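#onboarding

Welcome to the new folks! Below is a worked example of what a typical request in this channel looks like: someone posts a single protein sequence, and someone else replies with the predicted structure as tokens. Don't worry about understanding the tokens yet, we'll cover that in week two.

Example request:
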Amino acid sequence: MLDSVIGRPGGVDGVEPADDVRSAIERYHDAVNRHDIDAVVAAFTDDGLIDCTPPPDGERYEGAVGIIALFRQLFDSDGRTFEIEELFTAGDRAVVRWRHHWVDASGRPGHVRGVDVLRVRNGQIAEKLSYVKG
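Example response:
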């Protein structure tokens, strides 16, 4: 039954079509990899939330102002990219396994792997909860 609901254009009872959820997340990742802060902000709802993983409880960035502040910090280097390793959706939710690549000030490459748990509303990301290995 859920598959038939997910496949309907416009969704039903707040359930986003799977293609809309996937497209919203792919638009977001494309904007991140282009270092396009305006497009990153546009990928989120006005009340969008990002919860990152610095120990012990993470940091929260809310709305456009918070999201801009986070990505200004993140885009300190041209070499930062996020590679999607796996993406799957269920209703208005998605889980993305990713690998974050960068090059440090001395030219050495590095990476870390993680998982995002996302909620999409009306074709935009409403919530992004990030968890990092290590």
